[in-house]
Amino acid sequence: MMIDFLKMHGLGNDFVIVDGRTRPIRFSAAQARAIGDRRKGIGYDQLIVIEPPVDPAADIFMRILNPDGSEAGACGNATRCVASLVAGDLGRDHLTIQTISGLLACRIRADGLVTVDMGPARLDWQAIPLAHASDTAHVDLAEGPLADPVCVNMGNPHAVFFVDDADAVDLPRFGPVLETHPIFPNRANIEVAHVTGPATVRMRVWERGAGITQACGSGACAVGVAAIRRGLVQGRRVTVTLDGGALIIEWLENGHVLMTGPVATSFRGTLGPELLGVPA
């Protein structure tokens, strides 16, 4: 079997996207790992399958797989890429994307940037989820120089650690330890961040199931919400700068979080039997 794919990225957060709207496409964990190998496969931060929607209110369903083969509930940058792609197919500037975490309304702006309503920021400890009751604005968790995180669920769990200098943190060392800490029964994405201005924040991210990535849309949303909750920025609109560039995050009064940023297409290709024929 041969499967066509499109390689896209949002701020360097890169995706292999396949279209399963006209024929069912399912990848095993072994296939996902093989395709994600950056030396022997294609390489990606997430593997995306576009499918027919289950909910009649949606235009498509977006399935998200991590490089380790696990399934993710949300990926903001991938949502923007898929929205741009499908909106072009439909000849519209707006659409609704369904994920396992819910429906996401998307809009293609006149300047080419894409805005996604990532839904409400979930702040209750059970919604993160955490292993026990906790004040999610100040979670009792520490590892090395990282302590006192803000926890937010943006379709997937996040722990945001505010530090003096995000670039000085040894994220490859502390990220995997915190991702799998017992307090996170479903693991967690780990962000380190520091405030750079009245409405600007610098962040780096260790993504659950993917490791360090150039950008993470849901992570930027979590950082924006965390900075606002802590009173570290002015207003409810924050520009979050990641390794790959900047995203605009707005936490609305109704609790929903809007994320705006660019998308880009890298190349097209075909997945062949060398990658699809790996043992399960």
Might you state the CATH topology name of the largest domain?
Answer: Diaminopimelate Epimerase, Chain A, domain 1
First and last CA, distance:
15 Å
Largest sheet: 17 strands, mixed
Specify the CATH architecture of the largest domain.
Answer: Roll
- Order of helix and strand elements from N to C terminus: EEHEEEHEEEEEEEHEEEHEEEEH
Average of pLDDT? 96
User: How many extended strands?
Assistant: 19
Radius of gyration: 18 Å
Approximately how much helix is present in the residues? 10-25%
Q: Which class of the largest domain in CATH terms?
A: Alpha Beta
Q: Which secondary-structure class do the elements indicate?
A: alpha+beta
Low-pLDDT parts are none
CATH superfamily of the largest domain: Diaminopimelate Epimerase, Chain A, domain 1
- Discrete helix count: 5
Name the shape in a single word. globular
Number of domains: 2
Q: Could you tell me the strand content as a percent range?
A: 35-45%
Sequence-ordered SSE layout with sheet pairings:
Layout: E1 3-10, E2 13-19, H1 29-36, E3 46-51, E4 60-65, E5 71-72, H2 76-90, E6 94-99, E7 102-108, E8 114-120, E9 142-143, E10 146-147, E11 150-153, E12 157-162, H3 171-179, E13 189-197, E14 200-207, E15 211-212, H4 217-229, E16 237-242, E17 245-251, E18 256-261, E19 264-271, H5 273-276
Parallel strand pairs: 2-3, 4-6, 12-13, 14-16
Antiparallel strand pairs: 1-2, 1-19, 3-4, 4-5, 6-7, 7-8, 8-18, 9-10, 11-12, 13-14, 14-15, 16-17, 17-18
